[in-house]
Design brief:
Number of helices: 3
Largest sheet: 4 strands, mixed
Shape: globular
Strand content: 25-35%
CATH class: Alpha Beta
CATH architecture: Roll
Number of strands: 8
Order of helices and strands: HEEHEEEEHEE
């Protein structure tokens, strides 16, 4: 498979030839994880309807859920304004994170940032 040349020409890849892929649950808006895609992974994701990533540690493609059963079924794929990331809205089956957490951001945890409301600049309590 080859990524559509019109799409490929728009992408701004990092030095390793990758773009970031933000994975979001389509119906709740919850951000599930961040992965990386090369042209082949993006092409497969667009054509197969399941999310495929490029593993930077294994230097190979991996289809989310092939081993765990926790598949990500594609609902939409959008390119960001800088063309260096995609937002992939999915129907997540099972858990998104390899640690066993619902999302990779649940697994990483809150960093305790000061939260400021956008209107008046008043500090509000963090959810942490």
């Amino acid at each position: 498979m080859t990524l559509d040349p019109d799409i490929a020409s728009r992408l701004k890849r990092d030095p390793a030839g990758l773009i970031a892929a933000v994975i979001q649950q389509h119906d709740t808006g919850e951000v599930l994880m961040l992965g990386w895609m090369n042209d082949e992974a993006l092409d497969l994701t667009l054509k197969e309807g399941r999310v495929v990533f490029w593993s930077r540690s294994r230097q190979s493609l991996w289809r989310k859920g092939d081993t765990s059963g926790h598949a990500q079924w594609v609902k939409s794929v959008s390119l960001d304004c800088d063309a260096d990331a995609v937002l992939v809205k999915v129907n997540q089956i099972g858990l998104a994170c390899h640690t066993g957490a619902k999302t990779c951001f649940d697994a990483g945890g809150d960093l305790g940032a000061i939260v400021v409301d956008g209107g008046g600049g008043d500090k509000v309590e963090s959810d942490a």
